[in-house]
Amino acid sequence: MRTAVDYGAPIAFAVTYFVTKNFQTATWVLVAASALALVVGYAVERRVALLPLFSGVMALVFGVLGLVFHSDVFVKIKVTVVNGALAAFMIGGVFLGRAPLKALMGEALHMSDAAWRTLTLRYGGYFALAAIANEVVRLTQDTPTWVKFRIALLPLAIVFSLTQTPFIMKHMAKPDDQKTPEPPDAGF
């Protein structure tokens, strides 16, 4: 269900675009599907995870701007803004001595702070590259090519995450590492 909530809106947008060949109609679908995804995500989990909330709100904001101004630029730059903001959040957080990814996922994974910093920088780099690639495609290609690129980013994100699995597995805390340390010998 989480995958449908996370990827449903952009997929619905692309399908609508390629069926209707109308960017405005596809944008209406994007806005509606983004709102629906937020509602369904909350109904299923009784909370809204921070990243899907951010992405969903950005889709709503940029989608509505695109509809109001009858321009595809807003929907296209949303990808750059979201990925650029995530890159800045991840990389900037590490440079400020934080591990933002740990704050987002810390309950799910137990790793050392050094491993969290490395993983956070890797994700920050991925988001930065996705933002740059979006701008290159947006500025040099036609709309059908951009929509194909946008949809290609979805499985690419999954592939990138899968490539991080060996690193995560290598640095996950072992059950023995999580035991409470014994107090030092009192000497008597």
From TrEMBL:
Q: Which residues cross the membrane?
A: 25-44, 51-69, 81-99, 120-137, 149-169
Q: Which residues form the signal peptide?
A: none
Protein topology in the membrane: Multi-pass membrane protein
Alphabetically sorted, this entry's keywords are: Cell inner membrane, Cell membrane, Membrane, Transmembrane, Transmembrane helix
Q: Where in the cell is it found?
A: Cell inner membrane
Of the GO CC terms on this record, one is:
plasma membrane
What is the protein's major site of localization? Answer: membrane
What HAMAP family does the annotation carry?
Answer: YciB (MF_00189)
Any idea what job this protein has?
Plays a role in cell envelope biogenesis, maintenance of cell envelope integrity and membrane homeostasis.
Similarity section: Belongs to the YciB family.
- This protein's name: Inner membrane-spanning protein YciB
* Gene transcribed to yield this protein: yciB
